Fold:
Amino acid sequence: MTQIKIRKANREDSEAIATYLLLAMEDIVCEFIGQKDANKAKAFLIHFIQQEQNQYSYQNCFVAEDEHQIIAAVNIYDGSHLKALRIPISQYIKAKFKTDFNPEDETQTGEYYIDSLGVNPNQQGKGIGATLLQFLINYYVTQNGQTIGLLVDEENPKAKKLYLKLGFKPAGQKILVGKRMQHLQIKPEP
Structure:
């Protein structure tokens, strides 16, 4: 494997970002829009990734590249901004899909929240997810003294094991679209 480059995403990355984030959140997006349709879920996500000032915006994403091909993406934002970042999404879902959008708060003030992370299935098992997470830990926690939080599905012990190995610690339980999730955080050293 060549050297992986991690960079801030741009609008042109929207389709690749949506492809990889949906690996982690297709069920959740389908629940949000009230339709079990992978194509509609992807179109919904691309729409918001291309826009600014919402939780899924390219502004809140990083991508990992190998030989100039995007092979992974992560969506992370300041948890204190969740309600404001959700407003355009809520309005769009109500207008376009005629369904109410009132999910539980998945994050909170005091943490940068890793909303979703996805790796190309052909590249999984090569440490790319761990590399991307380590990049975020270095950037947010080590360099900027921020706390990072995320939710892990209790039915995904492999992911939880990786997070714990990287230094995340249990911080409680949350429910997101009806699923029990464990809230994990990594904080700066005092």
About this structure: The longest helix spans residues 14-33. The beta strands are 5-8, 61-66, 69-78, 112-119, 148-153, 169-176, 179-186. The CA atoms of residues 91 and 101 lie 8 Å apart.
